[in-house]
Structures are given as C-alpha cells and as structure tokens.
Amino acid sequence: MKIIKQILFLTAIFSVGFLSACWSADGNRTNRTGSSPTSTTTTTSSATPGGSKTPANSSDSTKVNNTPKNETKSGGFQGNLPSGFQMPTDSVGQKMLREYGAMFVAKGVTPPGKVVFNNESEVSAFQSGTQKTSENIGGVTIELQTAAMNALKEAVNEAKGKNLSITPRNADSAKRSYQQTVDNWKSRVDPGLVFWVGKGRITQADANRIKALSATEQIPEIFKLEEQGIFFAQGNQKTIIYSVAPPGTSQHISMLALDVAQFENPAVRQVLANHGWFQTVPSDLPHFTYLGVSENELTNLGLKKVIESGRPFWVPNL
Ligand SMILES: [Zn+2]
Description:
The chain is of the alpha+beta class and 318 residues long. The protein has helices at residues 2-40, 76-79, 91-100, 120-128, 146-161, 178-198, 204-212, 215-227, 266-274, and strands spanning 132-137, 140-145, 257-259, 277-278, 287-290, 303-308, 311-316. A hairpin with an 8-residue loop joins β4 (277-278) and β5 (287-290).
C-alpha cells in the first residue's frame, strides 16, 4: 500500500516536473528572444520610473524619459497588443504578424484588431472607427490617424529647420483601401505567374487556377510556391512580401504608414524617428511606420532591432 502511494507520489512529481519543463522551454524561448534585443539598445533598463520630466510633447527631441512610459506594458510583444486582438491561428496570419506586426503595438493610436482584413467592408469599418486627419504635405494630400499625422507635421517642421524636407512619395503613400492592396498584389502575382510558366516551373493550368482564386485565397498559394523558390517580388528573386503586401494586410490600411520620398537620407530618417516614425518592414526602404514612442521605448513594446541596408528596422520579437 505504502509502495503504491509512493509510486503515485513519484508519478505526480514527474508529471509536474515534465509539464513545467515544457512550460519553461516555451518560456525560455520567449525570454531568450525577449532579452536579446535589450542588448541592442543601451539605456532602456536603467530608465528610472522616477525620471519624471513633464510628460507630453513627443515633439520634444530630448529622447530619454519624456515618452509616456506608462503606456507600454510588460509581457513583450503579445502583452502590448491591443485588447481583444485576434491572435492569428493560420500560417498566413502568423507569418504576416511576424513580418508586418510592429504596427499592432503602436501607442496613442488605434491599430487593427486582426492581421488580415478580408474585404473592403471590413477595412472601411475599421478605418471609419479611427480618429483620422487629411493634410496636404508637400503638395500631396494624405490621410493618417490623427496622432500619426500630428507627429508627422512636427517632423516636417523639425526637418524644415534643418533645411531638409519630408514629403510623401506619391498619392497613395499613406492610407490605402482594401482594393488598392488587391491591385498592388495582382500587379506582382499576374506577371509572376506568366514568368514562372515561361520558365516551366508552373503549368499553365496551375497558373490559371491561381489566377481564378480570390485575392485572399491566393495568399497561401503564393507563399507555398515561394517556399519552392518561385518568388513573386519584382525581378522574381525575392519574396513578394518585401515588394507588396498581401491583400488586406498592408500597414497602409491602418493609416499608420507613410512612404517617404527622402528615405535615403539618414538625417531625414533620424528626424522621423525623433517623432515616433520608424522602419518596420525590412527591405521596404521608403516605408515608415508610426509607433508613437521614442526609440528607447521600442524594446519595451516587444520589438527587436534588425539591421538591413545599414539601417535599423523594428520587428516583433516573436
Ligand atoms: Zn509603404
């Protein structure tokens, strides 16, 4: 009897040990990725909560301690997602969260509550539920969420004082509709299919089948082909997601993104960063995302820094 009890006891201990090992393996993974970026930024951990300068103006270019630190939450990237956010369970959604997800932890604005919008009515319902503003910036009328627009105007002013300018690349550099993301997607997918049929890597029948699918249905099909090296970015050497966003996933839909004409100028990139505008999609060099905090807060949002083409990109630390 006693032996049986001991066996039961040991089994229980073993199960608990096993479970906690799995848990901590998972936890370690999160922690490991969570701690790595801390090394890329320097001063964050020593930022004292008592460092209370006057809160407010993000326009103030002094960098440390003047951002609303109370807005960032512990728990890394997932802990900073908006409440009610629909975590994607499918592979397309998970991939897009990893690739484009920085905007979901932006502060002082309304990020989308899910990763992929499925149609125009979902997009317009989201867009009309945000606080947004239209402005003429450098001769181009653009629309952004109001906090993003205000920060942009402050950046434009700071740039002016330094004899620099910050202007949109073209008319669709900020807000986009669902249909615009479909059109952009098709502008790569359709010629890509022709290209790969010509190379004998896809049959005409397969190309026709993919072309006939809805934009949303095409996304996993294109990703599947790209896993085999059949790429759809311009030039067909790189993944399409560094060229155009899959339908319904563009950060431009969120009105938190801007394609900037002067993106090659490091001084311009610095001014934008001073006002909460950062780069978050590696390889998409003209593309900036409003995150609403200063650079030393970005790791607290659960983002990590990746250097590409000599510039920092902030991506979800997942
Ligand atoms: Zn863009």
